[in-house]
């Protein structure tokens, strides 16, 4: 498989968000001349609002509104001066009130994102280390990454996995002064908690451990003076813990607050904290509203408000218990998450609820894994019990409808979230289809396979038989693959869909940047299987090309795809797969909306290069069709060197030649961290040498013909396509003799002489291949992961 183009993370997010936007569930605009919090205007409809993060409803409190209006009248819309010079006259009172709330020194910041960017680089020293919970808020992760420039190590654990955390603490304890664990107090999607009590115990066990808690979703609705979940669990704030709260969301105003009991650290952060020093300060209206809210938090009224919200949340929880709705995490927070599994089901469900009169938030990648799409419901004091009950009734009615319309079911949702399994109902629209799932190409009709899938690449029937024999019974785990063949027939026994899959061990950083792979490979010197996972892939790491045949004009095409998805899910579950990969598709592929709706995200791959040889009589006639510029390059860089080289086609190799072939291939593999894969088994090259469909185009110097400087490993596909599958090169000779270009030219020359109709030149180096007459087509793949942990961990390393 060729080198992958490193996909810009933002490009992927943009695709997912664009899809959701087109479905009318994201990037909406609220409508109306006023807003009460209980209802919201969207698309000319007035909906009950179950998407707010103002859980106590303080943003609509008349005291906060009056304070904000008076501040604007007295001080203007802003106080345009850095806070390092002079603060708005209202700031002192706000700081005094919030300090009383937290009973410890505090720092007010413009918002939590800028706050993290100011605090983390100040609090974390060069001798320290950072460990992130993989679900900690993006703003914390982003601020932590800044410290990579100072060589502060950053690692990550799976969500709330304290065993994993302790292992990483042990590994860092003799290397780093402080070890910072960064987490949310309340997680914004599922509403689950950080295990504060267990973290306190770890801090006692490991004095180096310091906690950085982003508790913006835990503020106000819980805790003494509404100071949040983390402090309600901690009691007094220890010096080794920093807690971030918010003055927006539930607090009802704007801004954020850091609580820090370590006087030395507090002074350093407050004196110079990057954005805290240079960013604009809060507007007078925000400062005044926050002060009014702080006064409420310091009064007994805050506990009345908390209890009122708690009663509504418990009422909602009680109603949910009487349904089969897949609540992902049951807890006492005002945040609830109902899983839908596939994005397309989520879109359908949200739109149905809006038509019914209820607004909820869509939870989608990257906030959650794509396959863990769902709706986030927030309960606030704005919500009355009758509309809470109405929402539950609407969800109970519409979720089965949404599942049915998107050809899925509740069992698949439970399976996607690893909840207690429920029976998977059969889609009756697919009854007329028959699925053949086999574990060997020997069980598949040879003519059928070659007709529908086997005309290109190294995966015709004989090629797959060769791969099954090569990737089995090897001593290393990564060299043993399982093969699965899927043929879906209609009632008349006509194939509607044909493909094959492999299960193998992949390096998780295969698609990552070179820098990330270099860092990970250092760890693999001690642990060879660090960051590796079982992957179920369409095709294999050995093959390139169109691995999926589907009859695009068949009336049951979509149902066949649905059956394929269910087969993949069954294999994924039974084989405990961490990632599913579908490849290689044209960028113009019309299936993109379908795959995205099924929980896959699209990534770019290198362009595919092919040459059509029909009607090409000789290499000279092929060259004559090139541009004058490309012919000039051919004469200068290839033909001028050809006379110095010995070109030989080997149908088989002796032991010495095989050793050279393997060494040359390994040079290419080691120099290609951009596609970081395991090596192939040693017997591969011997098997190639013994197989009638494989041959080697070997290049050596005429003055040393026994020593190869380059080799192309080529496969004969049904006497139709010529497939230069892999290459080996001596990098010391690469520039002088233009070995890569020479091998491409000799491959084309060989294919024409052997009268092949087609050359599959594979992916990467499209610029070089285009110069020799290749047609280039952009390609993509679709991936689906069980969670975002690995993606985010590697993102931290890049």
From TrEMBL:
<dbReference type="InterPro" id="IPR016181">
    <property type="entry name" value="Acyl_CoA_acyltransferase"/>
</dbReference>
<keyword id="KW-0808">Transferase</keyword>
<dbReference type="Pfam" id="PF00155">
    <property type="entry name" value="Aminotran_1_2"/>
</dbReference>
<dbReference type="InterPro" id="IPR015421">
    <property type="entry name" value="PyrdxlP-dep_Trfase_major"/>
</dbReference>
<dbReference type="GO" id="GO:0030170">
    <property type="term" value="F:pyridoxal phosphate binding"/>
</dbReference>
<dbReference type="InterPro" id="IPR050087">
    <property type="entry name" value="AON_synthase_class-II"/>
</dbReference>
<dbReference type="GO" id="GO:0008483">
    <property type="term" value="F:transaminase activity"/>
</dbReference>
<feature type="domain" description="Aminotransferase class I/classII large">
    <location>
        <begin position="50"/>
        <end position="386"/>
    </location>
</feature>
<keyword id="KW-0032">Aminotransferase</keyword>
<dbReference type="InterPro" id="IPR015422">
    <property type="entry name" value="PyrdxlP-dep_Trfase_small"/>
</dbReference>
<dbReference type="InterPro" id="IPR004839">
    <property type="entry name" value="Aminotransferase_I/II_large"/>
</dbReference>
<dbReference type="InterPro" id="IPR015424">
    <property type="entry name" value="PyrdxlP-dep_Trfase"/>
</dbReference>
<protein>
    <submittedName>
        <fullName>Aminotransferase class I/II-fold pyridoxal phosphate-dependent enzyme</fullName>
    </submittedName>
</protein>
